[in-house]
Amino acid sequence: AQKVTQAQTEISVVEKEDVTLDCVYETRDTTYYLFWYKQPPSGELVFLIRRNSFDEQNEISGRYSWNFQKSTSSFNFTITASQVVDSAVYFCALRRYNTDKLIFGTGTRLQVFP
Amino acid sequence: AAGVIQSPRHLIKEKRETATLKCYPIPRHDTVYWYQQGPGQDPQFLISFYEKMQSDKGSIPDRFSAQQFSDYHSELNMSSLELGDSALYFCASSGPSSDHYEQYFGPGTRLTVT
Questions:
Q1: What does the alpha-carbon distance between residue B63 and residue B80 come to, in Å, rounded to a whole number?
Q2: Do B42 and A50 touch (CB under 8 A)?
């Protein structure tokens, strides 16, 4: 079975703190895709990153970085020097090869206080 | 850059009525996806279309139907509406080749059934 677990339901930090959002996935497939999406209070879903199962290279984009480890089936997301605008629900998602369906985790609500 | 357009943004219907949601994908995107997100929940995949043909199917009720037209826009038709259909409905689109695996979401249509 395919499953995505985001154990952290809610995280609160103060501005400028670093924060890591955890994502653990389950799949027996050898080829799959992992994603992070951001859902701000306005409600839209914003694509942040895609990582292929055969590419374990970590990625950094500005204050965002992602750590993909197949050995632990984890795809964690770190925000450095958090800002109030980072306040949102963050979803991790899994997509199997040759399917269209995104399997989302239950999301982590991040609140950044000034 | 152009994004996915969904209309209407808000819709209020009564039980047993019908509703039609429209989605206009990003230009040159050939695949459209529909998701349903209940209050406080993660998005659930309903159905997808590639080149006007149904591509994949998720947990879409029999009361719902969808199609993709020759200009690639898509419509989700919902009949015999129930209170439990109240949700945020997202349309997403993706393009050809490697971009196919990245789904870009529209702002959503918030459906309220009373």
A1: 7
A2: no
Could you report the per-residue pLDDT of A14-51, keeping only the tens digit for each?
999 999 999 999 999 999 999 999 999 999 999 999 99
What is the number of other CB atoms lying within 10 angstroms of the CB of residue B97?
6
Amino acid identity at A30: T
Of B33, B90, B108, the CB nearest to A100: B33
SS (H, E, C) A53-90: CCCCCCEEECCEEEEEEHHHCEEEEEECCCCHHHCEEE
Whether residues A95 and B102 touch (CB distance < 8 A) is answered with no
Residue A19 and residue A108: Cα distance in Å, rounded? 12
Cα end-to-end distance, chain B, whole Å: 36
CB contact under 8 A, A46 and B105: yes
- Measure the CA angle with vertex B96, ends B94 and B98; round to 5°: 90
Quick one: average pLDDT of A84-110?
A: 96
Token pair of A53 as six digits: 């199962």
